[in-house]
Design brief:
By secondary structure, the chain is an alpha/beta fold. The protein is built from five helices and seven strands, in the order E-H-E-H-E-H-E-E-E-E-H-H.
Length: 196
Amino acid sequence: MQQIVLASSNSGKLREFNQVLSGLEYEVLPQSHFDVTDAEETGLSFVENAILKARHASRISGLPALADDSGLEVDVLDGAPGIYSARFAGEGANDEANNHKLLEKLAAVPEQQRSARFQCLLVFVRHAADPTPVICQGTWEGRILTEPRGSNGFGYDPLFYIPSLGCCSAELMPEQKNSLSHRAQAVAQLVERLRT
């Protein structure tokens, strides 16, 4: 089994990556297993931040590393909250505060102008100085509701409406979301790339 360090201590992500990579003889370990602290996200894009996180985890652990950076882009806000999705309402903000700020910013915006998408960038490096990291991107199109709906999911899921499904992300069952989401798309690409 080839060990990979995940540049995150999120137990949900760890479980998800171990499940999808189990058939490929990979074991994914959390960065905390190697006393790796979170990398400083100084990049100006999802891909830059994911590369920073992957290289940081690989450098300290000495193992190949996997990192993701993801967030919500709202067109009328010029792509915000973007890379600042987790801290849109300020450092240490929770999901409720971030959602509240988004609704405030969009208060006067009509429904047809509330287009948005979730982005996920996954990066895999074989070693810290890998000159050709594997980069996979998943995009999930939707629009922002005027009030939260549903009780599943996290983050902006209660506000993210998928017109083709007639519901928001927080109204989907976890298995359904995990087969359609931006992260699911990026992970599927990663599995394909690692196979080859």
